[in-house]
């Protein structure tokens, strides 16, 4: 890759982020600036462009910056990328399981709602007796819907 050094503003505009974002990535260890110039300005080697592109891609895949940092650490240890691939697969398997748990929870909630709909559909009025427990209910004398009250009429 070229030896050209890029200014922080150039990187920021290239990726549609702020200079603060670039500095934040640097603080997290996701990218590194070369030595600063005499005016103490940050300069970034061209290979940072590739790292920023990878950050962008991994963020689009739903990874956090902490997870992305793990990928860069793994890549430094295993440039083949196999460990990164396996980690990404594990992350997606975990995300899938979390989503499946949400679906199961939603299905249970839907079943409860359907029970409520069924119970309310069977009522003569909104304030009718809530169910089959009339013969054991202490409120039977007050219930407008009780079969015991109807037989007395």
Provide structural commentary:
This protein is mainly α. The chain contains six helices and two strands, in the order βααβαααα. Among the domains are: 1-63, Multidrug-efflux Transporter Regulator, Chain: A, Domain 2 (Orthogonal Bundle); 126-153, no CATH class. The chain has helices spanning 8-15, 19-28, 47-60, 65-77, 82-121, 147-151; strands at residues 5-7, 43-45. The protein has a two-stranded antiparallel sheet with strand order 1-2.
How is this structure best summarized?
With 153 residues, the protein is mainly alpha-helical.
List keywords for this structure.
153 residues; Multidrug-efflux Transporter Regulator, Chain: A, Domain 2; 6 helices; single chain; two-stranded antiparallel ribbon; mainly alpha
């Amino acid at each position: 890759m070229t030896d050209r050094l890029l200014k922080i503003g150039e990187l920021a505009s290239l990726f549609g982020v702020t200079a603060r974002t670039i500095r934040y990535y640097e603080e997290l260890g996701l990218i590194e600036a070369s030595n600063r110039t005499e005016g103490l300005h940050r300069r970034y080697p061209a290979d940072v462009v590739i790292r920023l592109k990878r950050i962008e891609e991994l963020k689009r895949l739903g990874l956090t910056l902490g997870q992305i940092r793990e990928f860069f650490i793994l890549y430094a240890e295993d440039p083949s990328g196999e460990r990164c691939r396996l980690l990404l697969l594990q992350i997606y398997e975990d995300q899938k399981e979390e989503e499946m748990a949400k679906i199961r929870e939603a299905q249970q909630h839907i079943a409860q709602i359907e029970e409520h709909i069924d119970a309310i559909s069977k009522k003569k009025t909104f304030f009718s007796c809530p169910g089959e427990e009339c013969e054991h209910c202490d409120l039977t004398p007050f219930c407008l819907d009780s079969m015991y009250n109807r037989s007395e009429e």
